[in-house]
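Database export, one record per block. Field names are fixed; values are copied verbatim from the stored entry.
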Amino acid sequence: MQIVVAGQGYVGLPLAVRAAEVGHRVVGYDVDAHRVQQLAGGQSYVRDVDSSRLRVVLESGAYSATADAAALAGFDIAVITVPTPLRDGVPDLTYIESCARTLGERLRPGATVVLESTSYPGTTEELLLPILEEVSGLKGGVDFLAGFSPERIGNKRWSFDGTPKLVSGIDAKSLDVIKGFYDDIFQTTVPVSGTKVAELAKLLENTFRFVNISMINELAMLAASLGVDVWEAIDAAATKPFGFTRFTPGPGVGGHCLPIDPMFLSWKAQQELGVPFRFAELAADVNRHMPDYVVRRLVEALNKRGMPVSGSRILLLGMTYKYNATDLRNSPSARVAELLIDLGAEVRGAEPNIPDGDGTELSVPRVHATPDEVRAADAVVLLMDHPRFNLPMIEKCATYVLDCRNRLSGPNVETL
């Protein structure tokens, strides 16, 4: 089939390449001309897609990248994987709307449009479908098919195609076609009764993680004040073989999903029902303040050593939003850096997962975590325990470490 994947980021590019590998003709569409140029040259900027894989599907002709909307004409299935950010707590769906209009202008009878971008329940049927119908002059469920299938990107243990894929449609025929498409790409597909169920399921997945991570972060703050080792308590609780899921503390939740997706549901509940989603709002409040807590603990540690934070040299290790990621979006590390700079600290950051010279700017001067750099710091803060960090060296060379991941030990190490 002729496939269009609109949006060639962390979600769209892995899907586009995988669809090309199983035999479809895929056009990867993105409005970012620089991205398209990189892809056309066989250079992947997404960790889940090696450049070697990209070059294979490019050379075979199964995949092409374009910023020209005219190249989308004649598609059998189009998948929308564009961003859905929050703007001042309100979902910004302008990317979906713009993409829907672009696809609607090229929508033909018998084609299918699938939304993968995360949003509130009702987005597919209340926003996407009316735009497609208005622009194309066709009727959803009669002339064309549509549905929702949430992305599940980002787990280091499960492969892209090995992660079960939820699928839904606006009617039975839409579901059948959409399931058939994803059956070729994923080992397991899980059909649900409607698009709202699939939309809510995605928000449930991320809200579950968001609430529990924020809960354990708050518990870590309480445990420190009570003089209890929260990490030992977590290890102890995790010995229970049922009724407990292990979550661990950290400097905060970041990325393009966890701090954002639960707020879609919170906004929808407030707008449509007039009630708050209290768990999500409380979790968001805890998460927002975790970088403040990290900085407070660091200031206290420096004070105990007779050193003001102003003028101190601080080395931050790990600037991405999570372990072994290459993504800086909404990273709590950036907020930690900002707060320390405001207090007058001399802050440097080490991020081995982002290569030198790739154009990505950190929020602080970039250094490498060498023995000399570690020794020169008045304090080291381990924010993300990337495997490329030499943890034994850091233990040996650092004067003081605030370990936010419980990976280090020694008299010079304090855990979050």
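Remark 1: The first strand starts at residue 2 and ends at 6.
Remark 2: Residues 86 and 92 are 6 Å apart (CA to CA).
End of record.
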